[in-house]
Amino acid sequence: xxxxxxxxxxxxxxxxxxxxxxxxxxxxxxxxxxxxxxxxxxxxxxxxxxxxxxxxxxxxxxxxxxxxxxxxxxxxxxxxxxxxxxxxxxxxxxxxxxxxxxxxxxxxxxxxxxxxxxxxxxxxxxxxxxxxxxxxxxxxxxxxxxxxxxxxxxxxxxxxxxxxxxxxxxxxxxxxxxxxxxxxxxxxxxxxxxxxxxxxxxxxxxxxxxxxxxxxxxxxxxxxxxxxxxxxxxxxxxxxxxxxxxxxxxxxxxxxxxxxxxxxxxxxxxxxxxxxxxxxxxxxxxxxxxxxxxxxxxxxxxxxxxxxxxxxxxxxxxxxxxxxxxxxxxxxxxxxxxxxxxxxxxxxxxxxxxxxxxxxxxxxxxxxxxxxxxxxxxxxxxxxxxxxxxxxxxxxxxxxxxxxxxxxxxxxxxxxxxxxxxxxxxxxxxxxxx
Length: 434
What we know:
alpha/beta, two-stranded antiparallel ribbon, 13 helices, globular
């Protein structure tokens, strides 16, 4: 399979060769020094081109299934509605839960999709489907969203990871791990389960000078060996070493204490907020896809108490992230997706909980390629079914791909077998796209 380093957007026609050259040059200098990825990509000719052209995506993964009724599709005043009110947003005619006043005030960049019907309310199967955009198929291991975006949006010469996944909770961790599927391990995720900084990347017992001198020696010997020996194996080895060297230099990239106290205070002290800040640092440095997992939303009991705690945190972290991306000029090229494996039932059970529900639930898209300040789809008065604009996981993913400038109809190949990026006949939701 040919490697496609850009998303295919027409705007990539300008400056692509210069950009690749700049990144390659910066990577060559950084591979054998202790320069962080932030410094490498901080060169004006590189960072400016990144800001203009490179698409990226942050997924806020609400593991366990958040309630659409307490977030993006409130139904006050009906038996299924629960105790919380709906409030007016900054966009006339759009209301969301009173638990999300900050997002209500900055709806201008966000599209709410209220008409997902994904038909699978089992945690494991639904989580896999909502990370891959389609159900599993016997004998065919589909890549997830992060792996696809790693392949489509990543740069061969980049020294930062292509796919990073934060998921510290134990609940639900194994239901939808990063999965490159048939694309192969090259596009797999860097999973951070216990530490904000990747483990085993520090130079234990080696001084900076020793590390630099060893790298310079290796570079000298490698150049001599490579001279007159052009081959895919040699090139692959060099790229692998450069990527490892780059990741070793990335410790500061993951370290949010490098941010000012003002920025850290803005995101707040919670783990979710800290990981969202790390996600912003990563995409700013050129990482195409970051998933931030926030668990556990599986509120079979005491749904209203748990959502009264978790939804305001989501409201704060999501709006802070959108503000930060916008202030840095990154939001126009960064798609922020808020998604779970399913929603919650309109019916309220005997323990004041809501159960699994995949028939009429919500997600949001913000930023890159999206028509902000809008709602797509509608559920009925009780929230039990989609009344207008029903879409499935495939159409949601086709819309995400189109927003990021990726042709959702392209084929990958397993041998001679074409594997379409989305199932045949599926089209993006044009009303959602800018």
